[in-house]
Amino acid sequence: MSDFLWTDKSSEKWYIIFDQGHEGPYSLLFLEEKLKNQKINSQMKIWSEGLQSEMTLEAVIHLAESEYIVVNDDGEFPPPLPPLPFEEDNHETPPPVEIEDRVTKFSRPEAVREEIEESEEGQIESEDEEGLQDFEEVEVRKFTLKHKILAGVTGAAIMIGGVLYLLQNNKKEIEIHRPQGMSLKVSERVENYLQFKSWGEPLFFKEFTSDDLSVIWLASPGFQECEVTAHFKSQKDKLISMGDEVVEFEGSGELKNHLTELKKFSFLSGKKIIPGMYDMSISATNCRWDGLTSRLMNLGHTPEESYQAKMSVILYPKGVEEFRELLDKVTKKKMEKTLYEQNQADMFWQNVQEKLQTLLAISLQVEQHFLDFLKKNERQYQANLKVAIAEYTKKYGHFLTQFVVSNAESFKELSQLNVKGISSRKNYELQISSAAKDLGHTSMKLIEDLNDFKNPRRADLNQFENRLKRDFARFKENINQKIIQVSDDRSLPQDEASEEQSPSDK
């Protein structure tokens, strides 16, 4: 523990520890920034290689900011110091100031009472004046109540208008609630994308993925709630894969608080999401404003109930730049593989043609060998036949046997290579082996028939010669047809060559 470099805050070596796993690595600077922005809790557990057990983020930051770290003999850190006590306020509260009650006394001179004779008419006028005064007071109260109600409504309208004005003109920052499974780095990228533009911002979606591609989040800066369905299909040669897979799948979810979470996928092609570029067709229906504030800010205006869009997206958790670099590497490897397969294909077709031409040349030699024997003196037939059979066995019989064996071994080696179209090319292994065996069987049949002659006449030998020429003419025509077929198959794509011909068809 004493050798642990606490003050190194920039290295990405810290992991967030959960009950069922961990997340990271992150740098301590990154975690401090998230703590400052209240994105994470100071009591969350973190760990780094070199520590015996996880610690709270608060404790790690405290140790990293300490100038000196004291370690006990047993390797344990001393307990943290208790907090300093608060200083007591020793200043006494000044006594309340006594203020003398001051009574203002009003003095008035004695009223001079004058005797006034009141007539009956005076009394009537006084009563009329009092009734008029009561009526005026009632009317004043009614006017005052209406004025208060009008003033209250006007004030409330002004207040609501002021609040709406402040909301409309105040710079907004869209914040999301980080869903389970979304890492801090992905959350930061989402928040950087969700920039406030206006309360009536239309829908537009940007894709983000989890590290294992098990979840896709579609983020939109629009303040709307919708039911969202997305269809994805991989673009040709744009997957991070050495194969030629096609991945096509669908997912659906609800857009709320600027996020749509897609977790359950229905695959139409392929079995899993492969990192790469996809064509995304997205549909949003039953759209409405999200929250009271957005409804107030869009009074008199309703959002489009449906949204349709097609776009090209990159499903890769580490970002666009790293994806393009990796795709370039994969594309280069695939080109090298294609060139290798092309070279292997060229070598294969050349090898097949050479083998067929070898069989054609051997058939001509075997045919000429038997023709030379038949032209010899028939009086020495048995002696000449014995010599002819021995020479055939030595020159051609052993060769044909070895030819069939080596042909089978060469195709066995070819099958072990990871080359496209290998299975279809194995048809030629059977064709070449069959042709070699056919030549051997034809020759052996001729030898058996020649052994049946005891003392043949010249006419018998001439008749046998015509039969021999017919047999070899049939064999040579078959070989020439195969050579022509190889030239045709060589010009076709690798997967189509076997569809033009199979051993059972020829």
Mean pLDDT: 79
Helix content, binned percent: 40-55%
Number of domains in the coordinates? 4
The total of beta strands comes to 12
* Structural class category: alpha+beta
Cα-based radius of gyration, to the nearest Å: 50 Å
Strand order in space, largest sheet: 10-8-7-11-12
- Alpha-carbon distance between the termini? 79 Å
Please describe the biggest sheet, giving its number of strands, its sense, and whether it closes into a barrel: 5 strands, antiparallel
Q: Roughly what fraction of the amino acids lie in strands?
A: 15-25%
Which series of helices and strands comes N to C? EEHEEHHHEEEEEEEHEHHHHH
Can you walk through the features of this model?
The protein has 506 residues and is an alpha+beta fold. The chain folds into four domains: 1-80, Dna Ligase, domain 1, CATH 3.30.1490.40; 134-170; 184-318, Immunoglobulin-like (Sandwich), CATH 2.60.40; 331-500, no CATH class. The protein is built from ten helices and twelve strands. The strands form three sheets. Strands 10-8-7-11-12 form a five-stranded antiparallel β-sheet. The chain has a four-stranded antiparallel β-sheet with strand order 2-1-3-4. The protein has a three-stranded antiparallel β-sheet with strand order 5-6-9, covered by helices on one side. The model is unreliable at 67-117 and 496-506 (pLDDT under 50).
